[in-house]
Amino acid sequence: MPVRNDRPPGEVTIRKLEGPPEPGFDCGNPEQNEFLYERAWADQQESTSVTYQYFVDGAFAGFATVAMDGLALAFRERGPHIRYETVGATKLAQLGVDVRFQGHGLGETIVADVIGLAIRGSRQIGCRFVAVDARSGLDGWYERLAFKRNKLMQERLTRIALDKNRDLARLGTSMRFDIRTGPSA
Questions:
Q1: Nearest-CA neighbor of 20 among 53, 61, 47?
Q2: Residue 72 — pLDDT band, cuts 50, 70, 90?
Q3: Inter-residue contact 27 to 20 (CB < 8 Å)
Q4: Which residues contact 52 (CB under 8 A, 6 or more apart)?
Q5: CATH number for the domain whose boundaries are 12-184
């Protein structure tokens, strides 16, 4: 993964969400803010995801929500050595950086941390990828972090969206990072 020179100013500490998050966080995206304040803690209590908070010098600066996932990949996407169409993945379900801390590399720090979490977890449970459904316009950012597009998964997401009459403009881009081979995958 590329390393930026403009790391977040100050000391970054990470804490697993231990209750409803404190007010005052704003990443500039109402849907993500709503998820954080209305769903993150409830989902964590139901064991469907876990949210980690990132603090810079004690200020709540970002969050990542992770869950287990199965990533459907076509043969050409997974290569000859992976025989299963659906492969274990750690899902980066949500990522938000407070507007006060955007543009300083905190998002990259969070992604690197989630990749590290997936690598550590893969020693206990089969997990080959970190998966993300990148919001519109963020797919290029993830590509710079060595994520690749998932063609088969994207086709499936598109079919589901069409079947449910959802707005395709709001459909994320299914992407993956190969934790075994890293950026060269």
A1: 53
A2: confident
A3: no
A4: 14, 15, 16, 17, 63, 64, 65, 66, 113
A5: 3.40.630.30
Structure confidence at residue 1 as a pLDDT band (50, 70, 90): very low
Q: How confident is the model at residue 8 (pLDDT cuts 50, 70, 90)?
A: low
Q: Domain extents for the chain?
A: 12-184
pTM of the model: 0.87
Phi-psi map region of 35: left, alpha, beta (phi>0 left; psi -120 to 50 alpha): alpha
SS (H, E, C) the chain: CCCCCCCCCCCEEEEECCCCCCCCCCCCCHHHHHHHHHHHHHHHHCCCCEEEEEEECCEEEEEEEEEEEEEECCHHHHCCCCCCCEEEEEEEEEEEECHHHCCCCHHHHHHHHHHHHHHHHHCCCCCCEEEEEECCCCHHHHHHCCCEECHHHHHHHHHHHHHCCCCHHHCCEEEEEECCCHHHC
For residues 14-30, give the mean pLDDT. 96
Query: For residue 130, how many other CB atoms are within 10 A of its CB?
Result: 26
